[in-house]
């Protein structure tokens, strides 16, 4: 059971809701602030005050006054007209994240939404009914208007949802789950869609997956070091303390631990004096990517607990202020930064793959082929990795440097944060596939060197990997192997990676 208060949601607790389907509970005291802000909205309507989005139109129509008798019609028109998303739907965990984050924001008591509406959001989460939300169509300012409108449609019984393993009309899912739609009243439609929850939910999923990918990169790189008989001295603690970056020191320490007891690592001057950068600089590069993750986590956890509605209601309605908390610039920057950080993990992984397959750079069989010449082995796997990292370089172009005016220039600067978050997700998937290719090649190289000489940790990792991708004894359709390895990595239990391998040797992947 996860308790939501509007201000205490963390990535760890959100992960439990998104992936473990933890139930939601809201403390009684939180409802008090919700009900006070709702009362303020009702007073504004009753007194016919001119307040944006409550008694006026939206965007460029903010100067058009709306009579109280049209309040409900105004809200439903808003949701229907703004449901302009296109393209493939967001993954279900992202859609679930949108429900969670919008609920948490509205619980802060600045938005004037009735308890009835928020209770339905709770029910959708607890019944695992997830809106079908198209990925494209948001500018990332004025909120994620199009995606959140598709989410809001479900609350009024319209649109489509994912439920019980299939896509269906919302009213069918409600009948099966015993739920009932709501009729939106003054300000409620606007409160549901004026926020950054699409880009932030996508960003939350990105962070969770990127954290796993970054940790897996250390394990896979460690096996590559063994396959290439890399120099362990480059990971000596003193080197990394001398520079001072905490994350760099953590990566070096982790790799020292993973490779403890290995008979395949070498020392400087034993086979060569120095390794290439893609081996020697793993702590510096992987550590820098961890710094990016730290920045992203900080910004996500602020945004996950932020009031991003407009207008916001303060002092029990004494102040109702229009502002711009819906602008997604902080998350746009964070997602663009994440793109670069994860793309670099793929870049250096691809260079390690090249060192594993290129006979001019190692003493392994050319392209790890069982019969060089007659059989190509891993030759085209490296091509695939090169293609993926090249694609990442295009996707890593910052979306946040772009803007385009909308709503007749009333909304004349936008963040493009949702585009940034979507591209970050694609980069993460590409990076995982590159790491999967490195894993396949590293296993081949380690087997050539002698599995019995591997460290206990990498040897256990190797045997787990072999249950997914068998040894290359002859050429086959390697596409299936690469996808199988990537799918396996995606399902890995990240917490097991975090455990001290000296305490839990062998618990690498589930």
TrEMBL record:
In which pathway does this enzyme or protein participate? Amino-acid degradation; L-histidine degradation into L-glutamate; N-formimidoyl-L-glutamate from L-histidine: step 1/3
What InterPro entries has UniProt attached to this entry?
Answer: Aromatic_Lyase (IPR001106), Fumarase/histidase_N (IPR024083), HutH (IPR005921), L-Aspartase-like (IPR008948), Phe/His_NH3-lyase_AS (IPR022313)
Under the heading Gene3D superfamilies, the entry gives: Fumarase/aspartase (Central domain) (1.20.200.10), Fumarase/aspartase (N-terminal domain) (1.10.275.10)
Q: Where is this cross-link: 5-imidazolinone (Ala-Gly)?
A: 141-143
Report any one BP term from Gene Ontology.
Answer: L-histidine catabolic process to glutamate and formamide
PTM comment, free text: Contains an active site 4-methylidene-imidazol-5-one (MIO), which is formed autocatalytically by cyclization and dehydration of residues Ala-Ser-Gly.
Subcellular location per the Swiss-Prot or TrEMBL entry: Cytoplasm
The catalysed reaction is:
L-histidine = trans-urocanate + NH4(+)
Which residues, renumbered to this chain, carry the PTM 2,3-didehydroalanine (Ser)? Answer: 142
Extract the GO molecular function terms from the UniProt entry.
histidine ammonia-lyase activity
Q: Which UniProt keywords apply?
A: Cytoplasm, Histidine metabolism, Lyase
This protein's GO cellular component annotations are: cytoplasm
Question: EC number(s) for this protein?
Answer: 4.3.1.3
The entry assigns this protein to a family as follows:
Belongs to the PAL/histidase family.
Protein name stated in the entry? Histidine ammonia-lyase
């Amino acid at each position: 059971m996860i308790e939501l208060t509007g201000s205490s949601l963390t990535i760890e607790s959100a992960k439990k809701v998104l992936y473990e389907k933890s139930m939601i509970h809201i403390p009684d005291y939180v409802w008090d602030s919700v009900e006070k802000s709702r009362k303020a909205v009702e007073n504004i309507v009753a007194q016919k005050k001119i307040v944006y989005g409550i008694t006026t139109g939206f965007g460029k129509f903010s100067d058009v006054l709306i009579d109280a008798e049209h309040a409900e019609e105004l809200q439903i028109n808003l949701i229907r007209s703004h449901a302009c998303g296109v393209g493939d739907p967001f993954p279900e965990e992202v859609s679930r994240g949108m429900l969670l984050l919008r609920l948490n924001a509205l619980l802060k008591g600045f938005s004037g939404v009735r308890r009835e509406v928020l209770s339905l959001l709770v029910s959708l989460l607890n019944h695992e009914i997830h809106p079908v939300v198209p990925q494209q169509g948001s500018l990332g300012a004025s909120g994620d208007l199009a995606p959140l409108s598709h989410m809001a449609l479900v609350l009024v019984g319209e649109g489509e949802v994912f439920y019980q393993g299939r896509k269906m009309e919302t009213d069918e899912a409600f009948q099966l789950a015993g739920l009932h739609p709501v009729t939106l009243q003054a300000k409620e439609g606007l409160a549901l869609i004026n926020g950054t929850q699409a880009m932030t939910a996508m960003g939350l999923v990105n962070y969770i997956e990127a954290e796993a990918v970054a940790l897996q990169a250390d394990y896979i790189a460690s096996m590559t070091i063994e396959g290439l008989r890399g120099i362990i001295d480059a990971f000596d603690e003193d080197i990394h303390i001398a520079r001072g970056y905490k994350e760099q020191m953590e990566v070096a320490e982790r790799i020292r631990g993973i490779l403890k007891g290995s008979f395949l690592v070498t020392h400087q001057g034993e086979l060569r004096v120095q390794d290439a950068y893609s081996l020697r600089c793993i702590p510096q590069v992987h550590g820098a990517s961890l710094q990016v993750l730290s920045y992203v986590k900080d910004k996500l956890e602020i945004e996950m607990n932020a009031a991003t509605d407009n207008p916001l209601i303060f002092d029990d309605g004494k102040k109702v202020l229009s502002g711009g908390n819906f602008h997604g610039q902080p998350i746009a920057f964070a997602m663009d930064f994440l793109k670069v950080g994860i793309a670099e993990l793929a870049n250096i992984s691809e260079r390690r793959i090249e060192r594993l397959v290129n006979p001019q750079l190692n003493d392994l069989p050319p392209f790890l082929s069982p019969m060089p010449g007659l059989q190509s082995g891993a030759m085209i796997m490296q091509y695939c990795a090169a293609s993926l990292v090249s694609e990442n370089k295009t996707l890593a172009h910052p979306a946040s440097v772009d803007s385009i005016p909308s709503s007749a220039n009333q909304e004349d600067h936008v963040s493009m944060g949702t585009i940034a978050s979507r591209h970050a997700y694609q980069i993460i998937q590409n990076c995982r596939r590159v790491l999967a290719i490195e894993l396949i090649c590293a296993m081949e190289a380690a087997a050539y060197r002698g599995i019995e000489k591997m460290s206990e940790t990498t040897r256990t990792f190797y045997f787990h990997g072999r249950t997914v991708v068998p040894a290359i004894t002859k050429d086959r359709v390697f596409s299936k192997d690469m996808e199988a390895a990537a799918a396996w990595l995606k399902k890995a239990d990240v917490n097991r990676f975090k455990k001290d391998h000296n305490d839990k040797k062998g618990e690498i992947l589930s």
